[in-house]
Amino acid sequence: MKKTILTMAVAAFMASSALYGQEPDRKSEKARENLKDAKQEVVIAKQDLKEAQKDSASEYQKFKIDENKKIQNNNKSIADFKARIAKEKKENRAKYDKKLAVLEHKNTDLEKRLNDFKDNGKETWTAFKRGFNHDMDELGQSLKNFTI
């Protein structure tokens, strides 16, 4: 009887140690799988970031081309106004020349801002774009109102 109890105790001890020994292996296997999944997610996130940066860069280039066209049109309008002003009376010409100089300066500043912009992320890009469009619209309105 003592032998049977002793044998059962030894068998139970061996079984429990075998199960306990396998538990960390299961946990470590699960941890390895989680690490592998996390690495894959990081790779995917890096790819998404690169694509977003490419999209942002191409969006900026397209924006820059469009805005440069607007700036050139503004330059052309200013030159046309200067030609018309040359026919005005001397008193009016001085007043108009001052206004045109201010508009020309604004146009040059916008061109410089556009060329000097460094893309530092989506937030800076959207803030720059919003501010630049606002200033460009104001300049366009000023040029339209100039003839009035």
Q: Could you give the order of the helices and strands?
A: HHH
Work out the oligomeric state of the chains in this entry. Answer: single chain
Whole-number mean pLDDT: 79
- The beta-strand count equals 0
Q: Report the biggest beta sheet as strand number plus sense, adding barrel if it closes.
A: none
Give the fraction of residues assigned to helices. over 70%
Number of DSSP helical runs: 3
Q: Which residues form runs of ≥5 with pLDDT under 50?
A: none
Topology diagram in text:
Elements: H1 2-85, H2 90-116, H3 122-147
Helix pairs in contact: 1-2, 1-3, 2-3
Features:
mainly alpha, 0% strand
Describe the structure.
With 148 residues, the chain is mainly alpha-helical. 93% of the residues lie in helices and 0% in strands. It has helices spanning 2-85, 90-116, 122-147. α1 (2-85) packs antiparallel against α2, α1 (2-85) runs parallel beside α3 and α2 (90-116) packs antiparallel against α3 (122-147). The N and C termini lie far apart (117 Å). The relative contact order is 0.07.
